[in-house]
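In full, the data.
>
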Amino acid sequence: MNASPAAQPSKDHSAARRIFNWFQFQTADWLRTEGERWIFVAKAMLASFSALWLAFRLGLDAPYTALATTIILAMPSSGMVLEKAFYRFLGTLVGCSAALALVGLFPQMPTVLFIGLALWVALCTGGAAMHRNQQSYSFVLAGYTAVMIAVPAVDAPANVFTLAVTRVTEVGLGIICSAVVHDVFFPRRHSRAVMRTVQARYAGFIDFCRKVLEQRITPADAELNHLKFAADIAALESGRAAAFFEAGHSRSHTRQLHAFNAAFMTALTTFYTLHRLSHRLRAASANAAGMARVLALVEPLEAHMAAALRDDLTAARLAQMRNALANDIIAARAQLAAGPAVERALQIDFDTAVELLERFAGNLADFATLYHGLAQEKRQQVSDPGSYSPKTPPAIIVASGVRAGATLLITAAIWYWLAWSATINTILMATIFCALASSSPKPTVLVSQVLIGFLIAMPLAFITEFLMVAKADNFYPLVLAALPLFAFGAYLSSGPRWAGVGIGLGMFSATLVVPTNLMRYDVESFISSELSLTMGVGVAYLMFKVVLPEHTMGHRGHVAAALWREAQNACSARLHRLKRRFDNRVRDLLSQVNAAAGPAPNAETRAVVRQGLTLLELGHAVIELRHLLAASHAGAARDSLQAVLHLLAAYLHAPSRASGERALQAILDAGAAVRAALPDAHPERRARLHTALTDLHSIYTSLLDQLSGEPHVPTPAA
């Protein structure tokens, strides 16, 4: 008996399925891009008008404050919303407390009060510039909240407590609505974005290492990659901090991310040192037969490692790679020994390359192990190496505080001179945006975008207020009247290109369009407020243009000076976690340069990057040498190494050709003393002495680079 044929789907069913699949395919990309933006707009509007409705129901004096809070807190992910909400509330509490204290200390003394406010704002803005993360937002809020409470209380100091309580209540209401909406309705978990960043970092670094080992990247392109990696390190730490506020993010996961970032920086620094050594060998091999011979032994080792990086770096594959590298090194040493005797400098070059390859293989194994633990969501017992710590050059911190304090005093003088009551808005807007933009590498661009948003909002807000909101007889027509304007601002703020314009449009509209419980439609007052608010942002723009314009985040002159200071600290700071702190701060400074330079750094910026990477190599060698000295016994070798550190610190403190030459000679003398101690040393000490020779070699070549500006090959005496 033959089996019956399978039933065929009807033509209608097949056609419907094909249409559905086609529609799903066509809309998939839209859902990942525009769809996500419109979901963000919908959530922002739900949070905004929920806060506004509750503010009306509770009879709050300024319902627009709750609405404005939700607009400011509208962020792409729930973790970012919760993080910013926490620091906004904290900053609001501190700012209100400061306002109460200042008004209580200086009642009926407006001049002294404004001086006190200027000092407070300067201090808070400096703190914001120092931290450069959501913690900095707390400092910003603490500064301008004090101004928002204290300035209206200048003529009526008895009202300051009521103003402070009302402000905290309204901001708290906006925070609750934003947190609930963004965490409950279509939540976007930031922890997922963090894992995508981790995966991209791992894949990008492995690909970069393979291309460098295969000689498919020029040194200039490698420097730009290091600059981007520095920005990635800062971005991962920022993302981790936001994910920390989400449910399910444990402290052990935080430690794993810290360890992942630390392992990445260690592997990146070792690989950079290896790459520079290989580049020096290639540059000199054309004119020196001995160098060509060493290069011929080192290049196959790098090629074999590059081939190994093409596979997935599982634990078994990593063990196989390290065993193969050990065998290759044994064979290369035997080949070098079997040939003619080489000069001491060439032997040091070979030994240094071998040690760096072994060290990089170990660093890579640690990095890959941590990555696989994160990717597979396995809890790993890791010692917390400390979080990535941003560090801003002191001159920029001071300049940010001075600029913000001066802005407050200047706008207060304008208020006194014009006798225009609406100038209070100018004081507030100028102070707010001088503080907010202080941590931006391009503050004038940020403030100009906000100013454009204000200018666009001026006619739109007027039309919305007097032609639409004025006709609303209850809350729901009010929502319909105001929704297009606020949705337009939220849509603009959801994309990176026009985010500043969207924020400006939303803030301006929230301040002017939203009615109060006792509504007054006054055209003259409305236009006066429009002009004063816009004038405040214009004053902030002019202050960044005129007052210390070169003292902005990521300015290459300040970063270059800070890099030298970090190299000095490597010679003298306490050793506990010094390597991690040094790595953090140098990478953070390079990240600041990257943010300020944009996608196409100019020649001057590239020079700062090269100098930073050279100082990074030098600093790591110095720190390792200091660790060796801390564990060594007294003797000629130890004394000579101490002399190297002393003269190198003197050179870094006051760079000159003479001090550099003295440090170079001390390195040569130390190399001779260390080699003299090798024959009588026991195996453990002999290993430390060989490591000291490798560190001296790195310091010597890095110092030559600093003195000449171009890579140099060490002389045989090294």
Remarks:
- Residues 655 and 707 are 9 Å apart (CA to CA).
- The radius of gyration is 31 Å.
- Residues 191-245+248-376 form a domain with the Methane Monooxygenase Hydroxylase; Chain G, domain 1 fold (CATH 1.20.58).
